[in-house]
Design goal:
With 190 residues, this protein is α/β, with parallel strands linked by helices. The protein has a single domain, classed as Leucine Aminopeptidase, subunit E, domain 1. The longest helix has 19 residues.
C-alpha cells in the first residue's frame, strides 16, 4: 500500500500529517511501535514490525524489557526502511489513568526522537488496538500531545511528524484532528 497523506498542517518548522499507509514501509528516520510492557512483539503492529524488520528487533527489545507504561525504548530497525524503532508502551483501557499514560507514551516517544536527532517520525494510534483505548479519543490525545510537545520544543530536530494508520477509519480520525488544528486559535476557548 502506497502511503496517502489525508491531511497536513504546518506548525512552526514542523509539518504534521495524517497518513493512510503501512507503518512498516514508512520512509522516515524513526517509527513508533505500540508496544506492551515486555516488548514481546507477537501480534498487531509490533508483530508486523518484527516480521518485516527481522528478529534483531525482538532480540534488542528483549535486552530492554520490561518498560513501564508511558515510557519508550529504542532499537535498531533491522530491514525496515527507517533507522530506528521507538517502542512506546501505552495504557490498557480500564486500568485507570489512561489519558495521562497515553500522553506520557507520546512524550517519551518524541523525547527519544529528539535524543536521536531525527527529522522525521511516524506514530501509530497507540493503545487503540488490542489495548482497547477508544479510537476517537486516542487519536485526538496523540495528536494533541504531539502538538504540545512540539510547541514546547521549538528548536527540536523534528520537521515531519506523521500519524500513520493502515485502516481508513483510524487514519480518517487522525486527519480530522489535524484539520481541526488549522482552525484552532490558542486561548480562544475553541
Amino acid at each position: 500500500m502506497d502511503p496517502r497523506v489525508l491531511a497536513e498542517h504546518t506548525r512552526g518548522h514542523c509539518v504534521l500529517q495524517a497518513v493512510l499507509g503501512d507503518m512498516t514501509a514508512e520512509r522516515v528516520d524513526a517509527i513508533v511501535n505500540a508496544a506492551n510492557l515486555n516488548l514481546a512483539h507477537g501480534g498487531g503492529l509490533a508483530g508486523a514490525i518484527v516480521a518485516r524488520g527481522g528478529a534483531v528487533i525482538q532480540e534488542e527489545s528483549d535486552k530492554l524489557a520490561p518498560i513501564a507504561t508511558g515510557n519508550a525504548a529504542v532499537t535498531s530497525a533491522g530491514d525496515l526502511p527507517c533507522r530506528w524503532v521507538i517502542h512506546a508502551v501505552g495504557p490498557v483501557w480500564g486500568d485507570g489513568g489512561e489519558e495521562t499514560s497515553l500522553r506520557m507514551a507520546v512524550r517519551s516517544s518524541l523525547d527519544c526522537a529528539a535524543e536521536l536527532g531525527v527529522t522525521s517520525i511516524a506514530l501509530p494510534a497507540i493503545s487503540t488496538g488490542i489495548f482497547g483505548y477508544p479510537k476517537s479519543e486516542g487519536t485526538a490525545t496523540i495528536v494533541e500531545e504531539a502538538r504540545l510537545w512540539l510547541d514546547g520544543h521549538p528548536d527540536s530536530s523534528l520537521t515531519t511528524v506523521r500519524f500513520t494508520a493502515f485502516d481508513e477509519r483510524t487514519a480518517g480520525l487522525f486527519a480530522d484532528v489535524i484539520r481541526a488544528l488549522a482552525t484552532f486559535v490558542p486561548n480562544s476557548g475553541i
